[in-house]
Specification:
Shape: globular
Strand content: 15-25%
CATH topology: Rossmann fold
CATH superfamily: Alpha/Beta hydrolase fold, catalytic domain
Order of helices and strands: HEEEEHEHEHHEHHHHEHEEHEHE
Number of domains: 1
Radius of gyration: 20 Å
Low-confidence stretches: 1-32
CATH class: Alpha Beta
Largest sheet: 10 strands, mixed
Oligomer: single chain
Distance between the termini: 60 Å
Length: 376
């Protein structure tokens, strides 16, 4: 007999509070909200499937400690009305999100969490969020959802927010939560926590087609290309299914429908130097094909003509390709670029928070929003 979500969530064996703090943050729903922030250590599994068959165990059959990960969280005083799970991007990690989690929790009266990925390159101990942690983030998200539901003794509405590489993490989470689990350790692990249904998804400047991203990285970023191959087990030719599972645009319609999602927001800037603008339309097509309400956000200009907190298309390849404009020319164009996800003042992250607010406040109608249509 299938166990209930509550029994599985409560059975999580390791939820040790490492640090916690309180902060008063103003929010619009019930006056100033008191939020509590911290980090807990939770049991998980890894690429090798260590302890995957025994989610409540602390040690493996060989006596080795089962894998764990840090979950950064913020929660409001009183009963939260929903859960927001953040999937971070390349070069970022959950440890960089506490301020944003506190802001989300206070503004929307929700629990907000971000996973800290631990699969870091052995020769780069301070390196954050490589491509080969996409599957890790997806596995840990299922644990995070179960933890939050157990914490509140409630089947919380769950919203997902992915930024940049986090879009690939969103895809792998959906795929793992909905695909046949026979013989698949990741699918078995994710589905054992019953993380579905989902109430909404926000994809901000996200990777929607990992095959395209691999092809671009092969030309300009060999390190990222190697990380993608490590994550997938090959190239788009030799590991086609793995690339599809990590691409929102390539997920089967049946998997999109199985999530229970009533609405998805897809946000992109027109001059993105890291995730090309065409990928936003590939993701939108997949959402619409599944009959899910789509809220699109297209960002044209920056708030000013400097590049603070964002990267733009031609600036990233200045001198790499003869004939491309210099960064000085790029600055003068004032086009919005790929945002630093931890900079809430950038146009992309402002739009992501706007999209999240729209969903959490119950608006699931389809829409198309143009932002900064007049040059500063």
């Amino acid at each position: 007999m299938r166990a209930s979500w509550r029994r599985l969530a409560v059975a999580l064996p390791l939820a040790v509070t490492v640090a916690a703090s309180g902060a008063a943050v103003a929010g619009p729903h019930a006056g100033p909200q008191q939020t509590r922030s911290g980090v807990v250590t939770l049991r998980t599994t890894d690429d090798a499937g260590t302890c995957a068959a025994t989610p409540t165990a602390r040690k493996s059959a060989t006596g080795a400690a089962c894998p764990t990960f840090p979950l950064y969280y913020a929660m409001p005083k009183g009963t939260p009305r929903a859960l927001v799970v953040v999937f971070h991007g390349h070069g970022h990690n959950g440890e960089q999100y506490p301020a944003q989690l506190a802001s989300i929790a206070a503004e929307h009266h929700v629990i907000a969490v971000a996973m800290g990925t631990v699969e870091l390159a052995a020769d780069k101990p301070s390196y954050r969020g490589p491509f080969d942690s996409v599957d890790e983030e997806a596995r840990d998200a299922a644990v995070a959802i179960a933890w939050a539901r157990a914490k509140t003794h409630s089947q919380l509405k769950t919203y997902l927010l992915g930024v940049s590489m986090g879009g690939s993490g969103l895809a792998y989470f959906i795929d793992a939560a909905t695909r046949a689990k026979a013989g698949d350790r990741d699918a078995t692990w994710v589905q054992s926590f019953h993380p579905l249904p989902l109430a909404g998804l926000v994809d901000a400047e996200g990777i929607s087609n990992l095959s395209e991203t691999w092809a671009e990285a092969s030309g300009f970023d060999k390190v990222a290309a190697a990380e993608i191959e490590l994550e997938t087990g090959g190239t788009p030719t030799t590991a086609t299914a793995a690339y599809q599972a990590r691409s929102l645009a390539l997920l089967p319609t049946s998997e999109w429908k199985a999530t229970g999602l009533p609405v998805v927001a897809v946000i992109h800037d027109v001059d993105d130097g890291l995730v090309p603008y065409n990928q936003t339309f590939e993701a939108r097509a997949a959402v619409l094909a599944a009959g899910i309400s789509l809220q699109g956000y297209d960002i044209v200009f920056k708030d000013s003509c400097d590049q603070a907190g964002q990267t733009t298309g031609t600036a990233t390849i200045t001198k790499a390709i003869p004939g491309f404009p210099t960064s000085t020319t790029e600055d003068a164009l004032c086009l919005a670029g790929h945002a630093n996800e931890n900079d809430p003042t950038t146009p992309v992250m402002k739009a992501a928070m706007q999209a999240l607010a729209t969903m959490v406040n119950g608006n699931i109608s389809g829409s198309e929003t143009l932002i900064n249509t007049s040059r500063p």
